# Entry
Amino acid sequence: MTMSANKPISANHRTALGALYRGDCLDVLSSLATGSVDLIFADPPFNLGKSYASGMDDDISEARYLTWCKTWIDACVRVLKPGGSFFLYNLPKWNLALGAYLNERLTFRHLIAIEMTYTLPIGGRLYPSHYSLLYYCKGARPNTFTPDRVAMGTCPHCSRELKDYGGYKDKMNPAGINLGDVWKDIPPVRHPKFKRRSDANELSIKLLDRVITMASRPGDLVVDPFGGSGSTYAVAEIKGRRWIGMELGPVDQIIARLDSRNLTIEQGYLDEHRHELNALFPPAVLAARKQRGLWTPGNIPKGNPRRRVEGAEVQQSELILLESAGEYLPKKRIVTKLPKKRIKSRKSA
# Structure
């Protein structure tokens, strides 16, 4: 984590949408124009004493680590557009201190907990089961905020809902439930089939898909100062975002990942994942609930749970893919038609 002086640096790899630099993020960030970036996602080393191919020192004092983080955070804040979004992924311990620093420079939006359960025995303390994702914007509000909606939790065996929504089922949005700030549906990348980096952990493309979808639009500029395995750059390519990447260590694995054949495979993973989003029930669950006679959008009980709503039913909207592994929108507007109720007049006493 050296704080090197500014040096001329050229891209090691370019695509139609982005450029990848091998070098210190401070050098690359200093070359970017002020207020030019729409979205920054930062996943720095956690200072856990790991050995990286770059040879960087990942075991320094807390004071030195925080000073280094504040230096590159200031560089990120400078290049961020007004209304741009900044995400910082780190251990809760570090984000607690860095959040206080960011509060003086950007507008706090959310502290997101991302569940990561490894089931390792740890004595003398509570088991740490989540990472921290800080979400800030530059100015009063973000230029883009288009979060996905998620499906209602259901039992994988009987397809019944896990949470009782009581008499509010008729108010449920057929497009899904609002995304919360505790994300339990993005497991860590463990299987060799999905890993692109052997010397360190890597982030799931599902996480980057969610962040990039939420805080940017096609054509926006995305920056990740710590390339790692290149997950941010791969998702940016798939979703049609311009990007600038940097990595202190070898970049051969990232370049290979950005090959069109590999991106096609990863796009297939994302498309499969996204078909579970932006609908109250995924297609398979919706079909199973209909088969079992359970309520679905358009067939929602009011009062008597066994009574069907008469009149025109509202079907769960059919979803179409407008951009590869991108935004899903309804084909048609959803209109709810309920039978009119007769109001009996009361006789005056």
